[in-house]
Amino acid sequence: MSRNDAGTWALGVAALFACALRVGFTVYHRTAAMTAPLDGAAARRLERIYAWPYYLYSALLGTFGALVFAESDPTAQMLTICVLVGYCAGVATGTGLRPPVAIPSMLMALSPAILVSALHLEPMHIGMSVIAGSFLTGGSQSVVRMHRSASTEIGKRLTSVSLARRDGLTSLPNRLALREYFEENALLLGPGSVVAVHYLDLDGFKPVNDRFGHAAGDELLAAVAERLRTAVRSGDIVARLGGDEFGIVQFGLGRNEEAELLARRICAAIAQPFDLCGEAVEITTSIGTVLSSESGTDLEALLRSADARLYQAKREKMPLSSGYGSML
Questions:
Q1: pLDDT at 124 exceeding the cut of 50
Q2: Helix/strand/coil for 170
Q3: Fewest C-beta in 10 Å: which of 65, 128, 239, 260?
Q4: How distant, in Å, are the alpha carbons of 22, 47, 112, 138 from that of 61?
Q5: What residues pair up with 250 in beta bridges, in sequence order?
Q6: Which of 131, 163, 195 is at the close of a domain?
Q7: In the chain, count of helices (H) and strands (E)?
Q8: Cβ–Cβ < 8 Å for 284, 267
Q9: Range of the domain at 281
Q10: Residues of 162-188 as b/e, b for ≥16 C-beta within 10 angstroms?
Q11: Which of 276, 251, 278, 272 is nearest to 262 (CA)?
């Protein structure tokens, strides 16, 4: 066996290893990539893991192409350039949404053959180098355009989804987002875990709205929403249900009293004067609260019960206008 034959066999074996490595990495990390919640750093790490077998295979293929074009066998060169171009086309199609993977792989696979061919200084080889170089440039530009187009489309979809689940006035989650959040987290409740649902509305909002106008009323609702955000714990969710009505869900309560403490904290926060149209405006809030530790509890049922507690609090005119109940 000649030295060139031995080198070709070594490249072939190494390329098979790189291909097997790529498939193995993909299968091993598939579950994490498809189901795990990934932040930006974790996603980039997975992309790097996915990229290295591609780089290795492309570099080996590029080395093989350079060896073929270093020889003077036109048939082998013609077949090799077809293989290289086909490989680059496959990379552009299969990994086009990942330019950091696709473009370096294409460069490593095709550039060595282009450079070695050009060194022959013959019109045929120079022409082939120019054509292959043009293909490589065009392919890279196509990958970039594909990535930009996909990123724009994904951004539009995310924006649309976000808008569909946000209240336009207060930027709080709406009823749909509240229900989705509840259903996702209810599945994680352990035995004995307690969830609290608060239903509240604003006392004195209508007179303010009538006196200062709807624009001022909207400003007041936005200010109330900001105070509610700062009142709840991390992991709780506050949503606008409509008009001057809001809902809050607390998960993982250690003591039932935590729900009552939040209700009192909210009442105290809302009772502080608001600066509206240059005047200090005071309103209060009424809150109805229910607790549940039953798995599979429906959010709408809890909201109805909390709403009933709310109106009970209004009728009884309890201190701090807070009604408290339990579905334990």
A1: yes
A2: coil
A3: 260
A4: 15, 21, 9, 20
A5: 196
A6: 163
A7: 10, 7
A8: yes
A9: 175-324
A10: eeebbbeebebbbbebbbebbeeebee
A11: 251
